[in-house]
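Q: what sequence does this backbone want?
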């Protein structure tokens, strides 16, 4: 349920509402929009009389939320969520570009990648220091050393850093270096991890699970938000279907569905979504046309030599072409361009 607060209600009147919720053991999440305050109510409401809430002077109306997710629901923040991370706004007018190698392989490889994506106009450097690999014998990542290289690349270029955290015990160390904590597809339903990043106080980029429905995905976002962290970015990265021509099936309809039912920023990763570099540019263009707020693209100085995901990584030249193309489409979509 959400409680819509009357415009002009005083702080004391709002507090009355919060006190009543607290006395029933309910958790209140406050969304202060530009026009309205909305309170999301979480918990067992069976002993709460809605009549006693409705009579309070601050209450305009009570609205039940039918979806299993509540805080992620559009009703909680009808105007949409946008937030700033070091002067880049997620979920706003600008198209936010995150790019870099699949994995941090070495200092040289990462610094070169950072220079390449910065020159082409990216906002964030991506790169995994902890790699969730299908095989335990594949390269597992440089771990904290990789995080240090990411921080050095940020210093050198001014790019912000998005990088994956794979378990609750590494959340603190990843927080020391990252601007956004990435939760990978394989961990979308690692509920302990979701709760831990929810308490970490850093923005979270939540990738869609390999076989997750949109409803399950939004419930995963709910885990993070229920800890009080509303800075969640959803990333569509393709789902497992019967199709074998692509690594995954990039579900661009998810962008439209999310924009209808959820208020969080949505970005698209056509690299993992297709698995083939030749398909990345067309699907990146389509994602922007579908309304994505940003893109995450794998770029490698030498894709042939990449230690992971070389097949889907763009060369510097192709990334630069992609940037030109998506910027044109962003303009058509009414997004501001630098
Ligand atoms: C990644 O972005 O590095 C990654 C591993 O992606 P995903 O979790 O979507 O497979
Ligand atoms: Mn990858």
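A:
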């Amino acid at each position: 349920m959400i409680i819509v607060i009357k415009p002009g209600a005083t702080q004391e009147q709002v507090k009355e509402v919060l006190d009543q919720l607290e006395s029933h053991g309910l958790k209140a999440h406050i969304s202060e929009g530009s026009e309205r305050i909305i309170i999301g109510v979480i918990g067992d409401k069976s002993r709460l009389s809605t009549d006693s809430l409705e009579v309070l002077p601050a209450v305009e109306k009570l609205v039940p939320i039918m979806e299993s997710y509540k805080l992620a629901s559009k009703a909680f923040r009808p105007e949409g969520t946008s937030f700033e991370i070091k002067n880049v706004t997620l979920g706003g007018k600008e198209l936010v570009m995150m790019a870099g190698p699949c994995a941090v392989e070495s200092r040289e490889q990462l610094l070169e990648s950072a220079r390449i994506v910065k020159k082409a106009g990216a906002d964030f450097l991506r790169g995994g220091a902890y790699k969730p690999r299908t095989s335990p014998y594949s390269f597992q990542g440089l771990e904290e050393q990789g995080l240090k290289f990411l921080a050095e690349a940020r210093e050198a270029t001014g790019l912000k850093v998005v990088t994956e955290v794979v378990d609750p015990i590494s959340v603190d160390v990843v927080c020391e270096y990252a601007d956004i904590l990435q939760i990978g597809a394989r961990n979308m339903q690692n509920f302990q991890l979701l709760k831990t990043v929810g308490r970490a106080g850093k923005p979270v980029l939540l990738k869609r699970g390999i076989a997750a429905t949109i409803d399950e995905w939004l419930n995963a976002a709910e885990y993070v938000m229920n800890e009080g962290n509303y800075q969640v970015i959803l990333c569509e990265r393709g789902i497992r279907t019967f199709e074998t021509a692509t690594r995954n099936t990039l579900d661009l309809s998810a962008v439209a569905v999310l924009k209808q039912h959820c208020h969080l920023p949505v970005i698209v990763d056509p690299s993992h979504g297709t698995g083939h570099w030749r398909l990345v540019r067309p699907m990146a263009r389509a994602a922007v046309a579908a309304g994505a707020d940003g893109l995450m693209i794998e770029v490698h100085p030498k894709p042939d030599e990449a230690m992971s995901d070389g097949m889907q990584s763009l060369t510097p030249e192709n990334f630069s072409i992609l940037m030109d193309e998506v910027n044109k489409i962003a303009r058509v979509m009414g997004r501001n361009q630098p």
